[in-house]
From TrEMBL:
The keyword Transcription applies. The lineage of its organism: Bacteria, Bacillati, Actinomycetota, Actinomycetes, Micromonosporales. Belongs to the sigma-70 factor family. ECF subfamily. Keywords: DNA-binding, Sigma factor, Transcription, Transcription regulation. Gene3D superfamilies: 1.10.1740.10, Winged helix-like DNA-binding domain superfamily/Winged helix DNA-binding domain (1.10.10.10). GO terms for molecular function: DNA binding; sigma factor activity. PANTHER family: ECF RNA POLYMERASE SIGMA FACTOR SIGM (PTHR43133:SF50), RNA POLYMERASE ECF-TYPE SIGMA FACTO (PTHR43133). InterPro entries: RNA_pol_sigma-70-like (IPR039425), RNA_pol_sigma-70_dom (IPR014284), RNA_pol_sigma70_r2 (IPR007627), RNA_pol_sigma70_r4_t2 (IPR013249), RNA_pol_sigma_r2 (IPR013325), RNA_pol_sigma_r3/r4-like (IPR013324), WH-like_DNA-bd_sf (IPR036388). This is RNA polymerase sigma-70 factor (ECF subfamily). Pfam families: Sigma70_r2, Sigma70_r4_2.
């Protein structure tokens, strides 16, 4: 994609969903995605030639979110803000029960699920984005899906549509 507008329109929702899930819906996820796309636009000549511009934007958004969280923790004494309510309002097409189960996964597993399944990156691209090996991506994804299947089987009212996604 040579045109940034086309890239943005095609990938903005997937990137937002992936960052939202990877960060457990923390405040600032939307701002991090906006900042990442802003940086991509400013460097579009270089980003468009990147092997995967979506992965570049995802990595930038996740880094921005982590930086935001670190700044917040330094500036505000006491407990971090409650982040559960943001996830409850999050768009993205995931069933609320499934979203809650994904949010309960350990951080690395949640990030891998977000990048592999929601952002549709390959194992290699996910590994480069998270700075882990492709084999490690497979292991985390396998464990996450096994956990989700087990927990989903215990949730009442589970429909076949959700099971097909896993």
């Amino acid at each position: 994609m040579d045109d940034f507008g086309e890239f943005y329109a095609a990938r903005k929702d997937a990137v937002y969903r992936a960052v939202l899930v990877a960060t457990r819906g923390q405040p600032g996820a939307e701002d991090a995605v906006a900042e990442a796309f802003t940086r991509a636009y400013a460097r579009w000549d270089a980003v468009r030639t990147h092997p995967n511009p979506t992965a570049w934007v995802l990595r930038t958004a996740l880094n921005e979110q982590r930086s935001w969280w670190r700044r917040l923790r330094r500036e505000l004494p006491g407990d971090p803000p409650d982040v559960g309510t943001v996830a409850d309002r999050a768009p993205g097409g995931l069933d609320a029960r499934l979203r809650a189960l994904v949010m309960a996964l350990p951080t690395r597993q949640r990030e891998v699920v977000a990048l592999r399944l929601l952002a549709d990156l390959s194992a290699e691209e996910t590994g480069r984005t998270l700075r882990i090996g492709a084999a490690t991506v497979h292991v985390h994804l396998h464990r996450a899906l096994a956990t989700l299947r087990t927990r989903l089987a215990a949730v009442p009212g589970d429909g076949p549509l959700v099971r097909e996604k896993l």
